[in-house]
Design a protein that fits this description.
With 508 residues, this protein is of the alpha/beta class. 35% of the residues lie in helices and 10% in strands.
Length: 508
């Protein structure tokens, strides 16, 4: 949806039903109108109210829209926690091959052997890199993957008769989707505080763990970009009480090839394929959030998953790699969580990325960590040169961050009245997407940066210099930012609560 400078939906480009424009002339129907055997109550009484534009007008409109949008292809996107990185174009070519793009999930298995073999291989690759035993590709978002894994754990305990397990533990630095996913499944949420160094407090964990705990949910590295060295011990504490451990895979690209959730003691994990393994995302999708589980949870996965078996009879005519790929329904499945079999296009793109880089994915995660730490120190360096280093603090300055890091603009707010939001808006005027602001909540006036592994040193150096220059801008000017963007500063709370999702016909 596009907004004008006042925040209202644009309507000036459209000439609705009754206008003269027409982008395509349909051929005359084979049957005349009076011979169409449709009930009168299904026949339109008036023309549909959609734009009637010529092809040039339509092309110009969408080209105009594209020039107003910001994306990873137009500028640096250091959005912390969301991993907005370059997506190799070869992935798009592969996802659009006819044997992939032009099939339908209701076609018989012998038509789908190529796609099913890719699905099976992707399941296997994800299981290996995560240290899990089985994988489903069905969930289409990280949050949906979380909910799916929580439901698998819930059914696991129900089958064991452990219905007293009604609690899920989350640290106060957790992604908000963790407690939300658990609450959707009917669990009570127990939040534990972090230590002053930003890591999990094992003593606080011990104080709340008992036989009513079903699950602990945590990401590693955590949302401060710090590696949780005590996770194995936390896993032992939870497992000793009979609970399960869940790994939020949002930050998986920081550890890929170096360690795995399985080695840390986790029982289930979700993957953000669109973040770790490259898939264009943003604006609500498309995403992909598969989950991996240890063997004791495998038969609770949503149905179906892809399995392979020896060829039978004339299946050899259609088989791939001398094996037959088929849909399998786990014995105690929680059912489907998504129509069809997951977001196929996203899965294919990520499979292509995985196949292309292979063991080189370890280099990907190392470069992501390197870039984050380089940018972190570059911000300090340039802020010191510009004499504005006193305007922000880095709570973990002496430590090595992982793929992302946070700073606090609290000193700037107290000294000159400039907030994290003001600085973020000022960066928009310089042609950057702003870093994440006000998350995690444990950092006051927080800004979170994630440069990803795909940005060059020159880009990071330039951004650091520009960030320091924004801090030098006077407060009143930053309060008005952005001033060069198509849409000025908006009321985010009002926009979130008063969505404009359709054309305002009644306002014509």
């Amino acid at each position: 949806m596009v907004f004008d400078e006042g925040g209202g939906c644009l309507s000036r480009l459209f000439d609705f039903a009754g206008g003269t424009g027409m982008g395509y002339s349909q051929p005359e129907p084979l049957l005349s109108k009076d011979k169409v055997a449709l009930p009168s109550n299904l026949m339109r009484k008036a023309l549909p109210r959609w734009p009637r534009l010529s092809e040039p007008e339509m092309v110009r409109h969408y080209t105009w829209l594209s020039r107003r949008n910001f994306g990873i292809d137009t500028g640096f996107y250091p959005l912390g926690s969301c991993t907005m990185k370059h997506n190799p174009r070869v992935n798009e070519v592969i996802a659009q091959l006819p044997g992939i793009a032009d099939i339908h999930p209701h076609q018989p298995e012998h038509h789908l052997q190529g796609l099913l073999s890719i699905y099976h291989e992707m399941q296997h690759m994800l299981a290996i890199c995560s240290g899990m035993d089985d994988v489903t590709l069905q969930p289409v978002a990280g949050a949906q993957g979380e909910f799916t894994a929580v439901r698998c754990v819930q059914e696991y305990f129900r089958k064991r008769g452990e219905t007293q397990r009604t609690k899920v533990i989350v640290p106060d630095s957790a992604h908000g989707t963790n407690p939300a996913s658990a609450a959707m499944a009917g669990y009570d949420i127990v939040e534990i505080p972090s230590l002053e160094n930003g890591r999990i407090d094992l003593e606080a964990l011990k104080a709340v763990v008992d036989d009513t705990v079903a699950l602990m949910m945590i990401t590693n590295p955590n949302t401060l970009g710090l590696f949780e060295t005590d996770v194995p011990e936390a896993s032992e504490i939870v497992h000793a009480a009979g609970g399960q451990m869940y790994y939020d895979g949002a930050n998986f690209n920081a550890i890929l090839g170096r360690t795995s959730p399985g080695l840390m003691g986790f029982d289930a994990v979700h993957f953000n394929l669109h973040k770790t393994f490259s898939q264009p995302h943003g604006g609500g999708g498309p995403g992909s959030g598969p989950i991996g589980v240890k063997s004791h949870l495998a038969e609770f996965l949503p149905s179906p998953v892809v399995k392979k078996r020896p060829i039978v009879g004339d299946e050899a005519k259609f088989a791939v790699d001398d094996m037959w790929y088929t849909w399998y329904e786990p014995e105690h499945t929680i059912g489907k969580v998504q129509q069809w079999h997951g977001n196929a296009g996203a899965i294919i793109r990520c499979w292509a990325y995985y196949r292309r880089y292979g063991y080189g994915l370890k280099d990907m995660s190392e470069h992501a960590v390197l870039n984050a730490n380089y940018l972190r120190h570059a911000l300090h360096r340039e802020a010191k040169k510009a004499d504005v280093s006193h305007m922000f603090v880095d709570g973990a300055e002496a430590e090595v961050a992982k793929h992302e890091f946070t700073i606090s603009l609290q000193p700037a707010k107290e000294a000159v009245g400039v907030s994290a939001m003001d600085v973020a808006k000022g960066l928009l005027d310089l042609g950057y997407m702003a870093p994440t602001v006000y998350f995690p909540l444990v950092v006051p006036e927080c800004m979170m940066f994630e440069p990803t592994e795909t940005e060059s040193r020159d880009t990071l150096d330039t951004f650091a210099k520009d960030f320091a220059q924004v801090l030098k801008v006077d407060a009143q000017t930053l309060h008005e930012a952005p001033i060069t963007t198509p849409v000025r500063r908006v009321d985010e709370v009002y926009a979130a609560r008063n969505l404009c999702l359709k054309h305002p016909f009644d306002e014509e």
